[in-house]
Write a sequence for this structure.
C-alpha cells in the first residue's frame, strides 16, 4: 500500500528545534523527488523545502522557501525510504500542518516547491506548533 507518513511534529517554544520525518512505502522511493509543504490556519499552502533524487556524482539538489533558509535543512536516507526536515530557530510563524509529498517526473525543483508541480502523492500531515 502506497503511503507517506509524517512524524515528529509537536509543541515547541520559539527558538527551539524539531526534526520531522517522512517515511515512504509502496513506491520506488529512490526515483522520487520529495518535498515538505505546510499550511497555517487561514493561509494558503506553502512549499517549505524539496530534495531531488540522487544525481550520481553530484549532491542532491535542494530548494528552500526564503522564510526558512538558514534555519531548516532537508535530507534523505534512501536506505530507509525516509526524508527528514531539521527545523531550528523555530518561530511562531512556522506554526502549521506540515505535509510531505512525492513526485517522479519533476522538471524543476523550484516549480515543485513553489507550485506543487509534478506531485503524485501526499501524506496526511503532522502539526507543528511554536508557542511560548
Amino acid at each position: 500500500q502506497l503511503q507517506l507518513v509524517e512524524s515528529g511534529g509537536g509543541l515547541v517554544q520559539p527558538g527551539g528545534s524539531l526534526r520531522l520525518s517522512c517515511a515512504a512505502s509502496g513506491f520506488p522511493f529512490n526515483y522520487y523527488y520529495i518535498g515538505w509543504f505546510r499550511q497555517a490556519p487561514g493561509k494558503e499552502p506553502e512549499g517549505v523545502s524539496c530534495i531531488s533524487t540522487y544525481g550520481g556524482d553530484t549532491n542532491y539538489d535542494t530548494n528552500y522557501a526564503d522564510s526558512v533558509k538558514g534555519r531548516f535543512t532537508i535530507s534523505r536516507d534512501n536506505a530507509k525510504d525516509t526524508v527528514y526536515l531539521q527545523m531550528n530557530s523555530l518561530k511562531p510563524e512556522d506554526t502549521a500542518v506540515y505535509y510531505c509529498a512525492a513526485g517522479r517526473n519533476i522538471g524543476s525543483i523550484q516549480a515543485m516547491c513553489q507550485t506543487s508541480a509534478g506531485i503524485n502523492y501526499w501524506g496526511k500531515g503532522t502539526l507543528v506548533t511554536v508557542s511560548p
Q: What stands out?
A: The first strand starts at residue 3 and ends at 7. The longest helix spans residues 109-115.
